[in-house]
Design goal:
2 copies of one chain form a homodimer. With 324 residues, chain A is of the alpha/beta class. Chain A is built from 13 helices and 11 strands. In chain A, the strands form 2 sheets. Chain A has a 6-stranded mixed sheet, sandwiched between helices. The longest helix of chain A has 15 residues, at 191-205. Chain A binds a DNA duplex (30 and 30 nucleotides) through α2 and α4.
Chain lengths: 324, 324
Amino acid sequence: MKPTIKDIAAESGVSIATVSRVLSHKTGTYSEKTQAKILAVAKRLGYRKNSTAVELVKKKAAIIALIINATPTNFSTQIIDGIQRRAGELGQGVIILYAGNRNAELQHQAIVTALERAVSGILLAAIEPDAEDLTLLKESHVPFCFVSVYLGTDKVLAVSSDNEKLAATATDYLLDHGHTHIGLAGVDTYHTGSQRIAGYRRALAARDIQETTIKYGDYSYESGRQLLAEFLPLKVTAIIAASDMVAAGLLNAAQEAGIAVPEQLSLVSIDGTDICRITTPALTSLTQDFYQIGAQSVDRVLGEAAATFVPVKLVERGSVKRVG
Amino acid sequence: MKPTIKDIAAESGVSIATVSRVLSHKTGTYSEKTQAKILAVAKRLGYRKNSTAVELVKKKAAIIALIINATPTNFSTQIIDGIQRRAGELGQGVIILYAGNRNAELQHQAIVTALERAVSGILLAAIEPDAEDLTLLKESHVPFCFVSVYLGTDKVLAVSSDNEKLAATATDYLLDHGHTHIGLAGVDTYHTGSQRIAGYRRALAARDIQETTIKYGDYSYESGRQLLAEFLPLKVTAIIAASDMVAAGLLNAAQEAGIAVPEQLSLVSIDGTDICRITTPALTSLTQDFYQIGAQSVDRVLGEAAATFVPVKLVERGSVKRVG
DNA sequence: ATAGGCATTGTAAACGTTTACGTAACGTGC
DNA sequence: GCACGTTACGTAAACGTTTACAATGCCTAT
């Protein structure tokens, strides 16, 4: 049997209360002598605390639940890394619950699982919640925060890039390079996509361009490959890709179709992961600070001060050419 | 306050035992009538079970702990996906504990955390354990299984590709294409690396080639970039890369140095993730079945029948040329 | 001497479940 | 009418901690 504080108490001739106080560092409530004695016995017995029991009596787990889509997004590791690190600094553990791939049932299940454990906060990364999930979360009175998704309202916590500004920046950048026929590829139909479309529209409108060319997708490489064909007849000279993977898909499809990038077609990618460096040419990108997004979301959900939007950086590589 | 079974019991005029029996589906121990009554009350009260309490009394959590390196390996999502799915089928939840980046302290901490929760099994993905970790795990009497790492002995559970065979296959493939000066790039100095080196050596020796060219690294893109320069003076005509990222690094460094792939240098990559399709040319790879590795490791750690080695597939793309 | 304060420890209840055991009611077969 | 089995349910202990409260001993100031 695994030793408990009871065993330690018996072995060292004190009560379990004293053992508990020493082991949970309630300094000032025990003498150095008993501390030493208890610590020695604990070590000798190979004692390991039972977190389950602690959580039961405290009615609170020092744990943040991260619910995440199973979509193999290449940035998720950076987000997780940021969350993990910051949580550790604040004395919190992290458990990750996978929500399948846009599977409403699994997503719901993941939230319930988190709720069953009395976690100190719930983080939802790259998740688009349905109404039911949202009420479930609200009624639970457990703080929750969306990560890399901004619901368009400050009423629900979120940490994300400012997608509208991001898309506007990308569009402006292309406009500044002389492009006037600019496409937007691979955006989704939810919050993130809409915000990016809005920014794209706004930037174009500011220069009196009404023509917009928007193709929806799912952020995947395949999505990018397929979408290129749809842009071809539309005479765009530049495309903003909704993710690095979409950009890579567009790029490779273009090369196969004999279209040179950036000579005949400019590409700006959104995300800025390693993928951008791997392709030929390397992809100019709006690089999101995923690590920071993750770290900040921890602060947010635990009630520490932190901003909703994390700045984005434009990184010039080799996929955009000046025209006109 | 969150409602408990006590509240349900009071509300429906039965004992908490009966409520518990209904709620935990101990079929045959209650009448349909009471079941209906209790379920109704539970729903009305918005009851949610307290997993912590359940785990405390059962002394067992229906949870598998996955300890994983924070190294942004692009295959980890596939492994996690496999684990998650299979665990779900077996009624187990998954919590992921990040172990930092080859940080012995954090790694140790992660194991302790898992042990504190009485999990049903511990999975260690891409982790090279030190002696201390190993004894800690062994003494805990919690089943554990290494994922994508084979310690070279069947005494400790593992699910992995057969690295020796994998490397031999890659080498043979290159030999069959006429290459005789073959390099091996980016392998580590631990189990995985040694096994691959052994396979590489064995395949070469089988054709009476004694010359080996091995460069160590850390599986990263940067690692690949740097390593190319070291191979240049050695006149190899083909290189086996220890990961897709290393291959991408080699490829791009080669292109920058004016060396055409595959015309002047052939490349075989190990892993076979999406990265292989993104580069130009696409990378011929020994593709590991990470999803299966993950899924099978769950079976393994829970005591179900499953093999240690998961087959690897050679996928021909465009980075190898026949010579001689 | 006495009261008060402080340091240290012990007692016992509480957290929300599960489950072994006991019991009552109700047939059923004889 | 009796023994017995079955069904349905209740009682109470247990899981391993934390912590409010009480108790003890000792020191100090009066």
